[in-house]
Amino acid sequence: MTTSELKGGPTQPEICAVAVDKLGIRPGDTVADIGCGTGTVSIAIARTAQRVYAIDIRPEAITVAEDTIAKSGLTNITLIEDDACSFLQESERIDLAFVGGSKGLPRILLLLAEKRVRTIVVNAVLIETATSAINTMRALGIFAEAIHLQVSRSHDLAGKTMFKPENPIYIIVGRCVSY
Amino acid sequence: MTTSELKGGPTQPEICAVAVDKLGIRPGDTVADIGCGTGTVSIAIARTAQRVYAIDIRPEAITVAEDTIAKSGLTNITLIEDDACSFLQESERIDLAFVGGSKGLPRILLLLAEKRVRTIVVNAVLIETATSAINTMRALGIFAEAIHLQVSRSHDLAGKTMFKPENPIYIIVGRCVSY
Amino acid sequence: MTTSELKGGPTQPEICAVAVDKLGIRPGDTVADIGCGTGTVSIAIARTAQRVYAIDIRPEAITVAEDTIAKSGLTNITLIEDDACSFLQESERIDLAFVGGSKGLPRILLLLAEKRVRTIVVNAVLIETATSAINTMRALGIFAEAIHLQVSRSHDLAGKTMFKPENPIYIIVGRCVSY
Amino acid sequence: MTTSELKGGPTQPEICAVAVDKLGIRPGDTVADIGCGTGTVSIAIARTAQRVYAIDIRPEAITVAEDTIAKSGLTNITLIEDDACSFLQESERIDLAFVGGSKGLPRILLLLAEKRVRTIVVNAVLIETATSAINTMRALGIFAEAIHLQVSRSHDLAGKTMFKPENPIYIIVGRCVSY
């Protein structure tokens, strides 16, 4: 299985750039990439963070991510084939979390809020997931902002330029105040 | 050849609705649909206008449009396989013009301005065509407004809803002041 | 109070054109405009429909709409200052419904589904309202499609052209199969 | 004069994140920020690059940027109050260039192409500027891609969420092949 065959495919570079910017990564941070898929976002995060835990419950995602991460040459990413909630209940300190997968989102957000994760960034393509993320974050008192991002990309048409749109995405950001 | 096989395909219904609204059609109007393609826009215009001249230089467009128009049951559309400029130079009064094709656009706009066409609506997918339409209309003193339209359409994903974008379009509107 | 002072303001012409197109109005139709606000959409509908009931619970909306409708010269719009649900429970046949206001939306959709209204078009600016409309329509088995519409409008900047975006809108469409 | 008073205002964080990502900055790079305005982009670039030359011909931009840069604590940004072309003609090696200002763009792009700058990123709000950047880069054989970016940002409306759009932007990327 290759990167583009994995369901969802790799995160578009522009979406990745904005999501990583929203995280506000500091050099010493430990970051969880929940539903890491192809590992594209993990790699972008690992360029600044100290350690990245890339979690996915799908064995085929782990296989693809393993390959992508190996090619990147980065050594500070740990791949974990597990359920996100199990991982979060057992894990030590997590400074930041990126959530690319939507399964069990409310419970994941609750666990992240309990851990006082500094910033949580959720990427959602489904309007139901976006609304659920916003509602849950509002209920937990950690909602910071949401963004709707529409990227269109130039395509050559006989030497002229048309713009073809990528799928729009919601980026929802939560912030926990530390005690 | 079917509607969807013709280069460019039929105009999206939302784009069509906005473009027709911009024309501001009155019941007695004669309208030119320049680069009529599949005839979709001609049909929408013909529901209100008195007469529509649907012009396309491509024989395959005329064949497809003929079929679509026959199915619509409308009898006030005249199909013309010709170059737009030839048609405009010989035609009598034209009240409104919709321009879907971009070939020879500056000259078409000049001819339409000379004929004091009440409203001209240009649909453009290429940024170069949009800019050329705006520049030419500004130079002719007939530029009214331009719109960038991005429609995304719901798709079912396991009972949930994602939005997939259609290609964005520029709609450029010119208005001639009548003497 | 003027049109632009009423909360929400008038529906943008492009949004109005698309929403009215989605309704699929036939000449003999009776249409309910629920949460009619300034009356802009009612007027657009009344140009084709036989009768429009424009309902708003806010006295200030009725005052503004009264004025706008009078100026339009149309005589087939009946303004009703009432709660939408009360109106729907007592009303006779309704062929189509446009819902611009979001208060009590699930119950309004239930009543419209019970009345076998041919097409329901909901305009929503809030993501929660859009998701609620989609969910309720899915539950009622009447969900047809949803659209996300982003219109940007040209503004002159020293003879050049920048595009300023209007607020994006969700248009959700339901269709009842008649017995 | 404050940041928000300077014409154009600071670059939106999402736009900045994407533009900087497109540059592909390497730690040893020298970068020119042409038409630096408030200095927001210079600061983002300077976090990775070795040296940033922030150029603006407007004294008021230099004043604002001076203040913003001082607050950032970064010491690898050199502010230059000069015409971009004069600067480029006299400057030594430049690895990357970000162009935020549009004055004299074709000539700036020509000079950057002659200097074999690795990547050029142009941000444009005007459709004429975007088209000019694309055309010039195509003519110079350095056009890589163009992006249209539409960011909408959540606003609270009585505990619910509406999305208000920022001005859309074109990001045009050129790449020179080095000998």
Automatic annotation (TrEMBL), chains A, B, C, D:
Keywords: Cobalamin biosynthesis, Methyltransferase, S-adenosyl-L-methionine, Transferase. The keyword Transferase applies. Residues 31-99 form the Methyltransferase domain. Pfam families: Methyltransf_25 (PF13649). One of its GO terms (biological process) is cobalamin biosynthetic process. InterPro entries: Cbl_synth_MTase_CbiT, Cobalamin_biosynth_MTase, Methyltransf_25, SAM-dependent_MTases_sf. Pathway: Cofactor biosynthesis; adenosylcobalamin biosynthesis. The keyword S-adenosyl-L-methionine applies. One of its GO terms (molecular function) is methyltransferase activity. This is Precorrin-6Y C5,15-methyltransferase (Decarboxylating) subunit CbiT. It comes from Methanocalculus taiwanensis.
